[in-house]
Amino acid sequence: MANPNYNSRETEVKAFDDAKTGVKGLVQSGITAVPKIFINPQIDPQQTPISSDSAQFEFPLLDLEGVADDPIKRKAVVDAIREASETWGFFQVINHGIPEAVLVEMIDGVRRFFGQDDEERKKWYTRDRKARVVYNSNFDLYSAPSANWRDTVYCEMAPNLPQPEELPLVCSDIMIEYTKQVLKLGRSLFQILSEALGLKADHLVDMKCANGMAMLQHYYPECPQPELTLGASKHADSDFLTVLLTDQVRGLQVLYQNQWVDVPFVPGALVVNIGDLLQLVSNDRFVSAEHRVLVNSLSSRVSVACFFRGGTIRSTELYWPIEELVSEDNPARYRATTLEEYLTHSHSKGLDGTSALSHFRVGT
Questions:
Q1: Confidence (pLDDT) at 310
Q2: Contact 76, 62 (CB under 8 A)
């Protein structure tokens, strides 16, 4: 049945997009109610979120200190990552090798970008996905059932590292430095994940899972009616692995055992989660967990998500379940796909609350 408000919604969406100031612009204009295009049908205002602070859940926290040269510690971490990747699809890491000063500066860099005046930010605003830097609000603004309460700066940082002059001046240096650090960490994580799958340490690295990386800088402004909208609707990530840096403002929740669980803030920690493509190549051994972001009325929130996506988006590299993880009793559950095909499908459907993986599943 056609939505009777479709035409007015289309007009509202276009007006919002044409302003090129994002959700931050709405907040700056002094709005006291959430515009209709942001009201999320997934939300049950009566539902009380479960907090992982309760004794019911213990969010996985892994200490990476010594994993490179202490075999006993490494085995313990491999076992813990296997457990977390098969159940939660999420975990946090401490002693990951990235200096705290770099983490702090990266968060500050995002705040500097979004703290610029409208005209300065507008210079980067675009819907052209091929642009080196894409700043806009909601990549799926025109296709999703409702818009999310967030603005984003997106940039492909690897395998071809941008030149500083191609990036916003207020955060170019830290974007480059942070990328170099996260690429090193990503390689190490993929080696541990390979071992957790019972493969040789370099298996996922040799598959080029660690080669390509996109950086998404998210800004979630304070919201006048946080019970009506979300910073990010329920979704799973369209990549192999995501490394997430957040500020101290909580909001990220993971769907675990059919309940929304808060991801606790741990100073200096990074949140890591399995993406759809790793679930695909692991033939469902590892789970790409659904998650969402809540907003609040008191403060804005900042996060930096680094998506490991193999090679370049236009690579012809094919991905399918790893041969060693497939058997007569456990046949391949997915067909082969390229990164471009996967992302095209994922982008076209938007954050509609359904899994992009189901499109590539074979059999029953």
A1: 82
A2: no
- Cα(102)–Cα(60) distance, rounded to whole angstroms? 24
Tell me the C-alpha distance between 66 and 303, whole Å.
Answer: 27
Predicted confidence band of residue 52 (pLDDT cuts 50, 70, 90): very low
User: Is residue 54 scored above 50 in pLDDT?
Assistant: no
Backbone angles phi, psi at 243, to 5 degrees: -110, 120
CA distance to 35, 141, 166, per residue, from 9 (Å): 10, 11, 35
Neighbours of 300 (CB within 10 A): 19
What is the overall mean pLDDT for the chain?
93
Run of H or E residues at 231? none
Residues whose CB is less than 8 angstroms from the CB of residue 334 and which lie 6 or more positions away in sequence, other chains included: 280, 283, 320, 321, 357, 360, 361, 362
Helix (H) or strand (E) holding 328: none
pTM over 0.85: yes
Angle, CA of 9, 13 and 18, to the nearest 5° = 150
**Cross-strand partners of 61:** 92
Q: Which two tokens stand for residue 261?
A: 């669980």
Q: Domains in the chain, start-ordered, CATH in brackets?
A: 50-360 (2.60.120.330)
What single-letter amino acid sits at 275?
A: G
Q: CA-CA distance, 212 to 227, in Å (whole number)?
A: 36
CB 351 within 8 A of CB 232: yes
Q: Is the pLDDT of residue 5 over 60?
A: no
Q: DSSP letters of 17-75? A: HHH--HHHHHHHTT--S--GGG--TT--TTPPPBPTTSTT----EEE-TTTTT-HHHHH
Query: Listing from the earlier edge strand, what are the strands of the sheet with 291-293?
Result: 232-235, 291-293, 252-256, 259-262
| pLDDT(166) > 60 | yes
